[in-house]
Each structure stands twice: as C-alpha cells, then as structure tokens.
Amino acid sequence: MNLQTILLQSAEGSGSSWSGMLMIVAMVVVFYFFMIRPQSKKQKEIKKAREAMQKGDKVITAGGIYGTIASINEAAGTMMIEISKGVDIKVSRDQVYPVVENTAAEKK
C-alpha cells in the first residue's frame, strides 16, 4: 500500500461518519414530531379539561370508577366523587378524567 491509497480510504471514512450523524439527527426529529409533540398536546388538553371540571360533572377515575363530582377541594388537590347515592369517595384531582358520553349509545 502506498500513502495515496491510505489517504483516500480515510477520506471516504470521514464522509460516512457525517451521514451517520445526519441519520441520528433525522431520527430525533421524526421522534419529536410523531411521538413527543402529540403527547405534549394531549397532556395540555387533559390539564385544561381537569381545570374546567365543576360540581355535578360526570367523571371517571384512573381506576375505572364512574361517578359525579360532589365537591372540589382546590387547596388539597382532591375531590369527592359520588359513585352511588350516599356513597362518596375522595380522590386526587390528577386521577380524574371528564367523561365523554357517546351520543349514539344514548339514542338506543
């Protein structure tokens, strides 16, 4: 091998490292736009919906319990949910989601 062959091989190798780095950056961008950004938007919508909840709204807990908000304690970050007449449970506000009722099921 002579010096010229060695220099040409090393020049080719440096170009492939840039293309590898470019692929990694492209993958990060794809992950951001297809996974991170939509999840962030969804979290903001859920937070906004939780802040808009009031007494009397129908909700579901993270554990799958349906009920109606009986009272909200802003300071403690909790709410009392009536799951049956005379049966109230105390849950964290972060573990409650508003119920989106299916109008097609109600018509049947």
Looking at this protein, list some descriptive labels.
108 residues, alpha+beta, SH3 type barrels, 2 domains, 5-stranded antiparallel β-sheet, 2 helices, rod-shaped
| Global shape | rod-shaped
**Unreliable segments of 5+ consecutive residues:** none
Radius of gyration in whole Å, from Cα?
27 Å
- What would CATH call the architecture of the largest domain? Roll
Distance between the termini: 83 Å
Number of separate helices? 2
Topology-level CATH name of the largest domain: SH3 type barrels
User: Sheet with the most strands?
Assistant: 5 strands, antiparallel
**Which structural class do you get from the secondary structure elements?**
alpha+beta
As for the number of domains, it is 2
How do the helices and strands follow one another from N- to C-terminus?
Answer: HEEEEEH
**Relative strand content:** 25-35%
Percent range for helical residues? 40-55%
By DSSP, the count of extended strands is: 5
- Average pLDDT taken over every residue: 83
Strand order of the largest sheet: 4-3-2-1-5
CATH top level label of the largest domain? Mainly Beta
SSE arrangement:
Layout: H1 3-51, E1 58-61, E2 66-73, E3 78-84, E4 87-92, E5 96-98, H2 103-107
Antiparallel strand pairs: 1-2, 1-5, 2-3, 3-4
Q: Would you kindly provide a written description of the structure presented here, covering whatever features stand out?
A:
- Strands 4-3-2-1-5 form a five-stranded antiparallel beta sheet.
- Helix content is about 50%, strand content about 25%.
- The chain is rod-shaped, with a radius of gyration of 27 Å.
- The N and C termini lie far apart (about 85 Å).
- The protein has two helices and five strands, in the order αβββββα.
- The protein has two domains: about 50 residues; about 55 residues, SH3 type barrels, CATH 2.30.30.140.
- The model has no long low-confidence stretch (mean pLDDT about 85).
- With about 110 residues, it is α+β, with helices and mostly antiparallel strands.
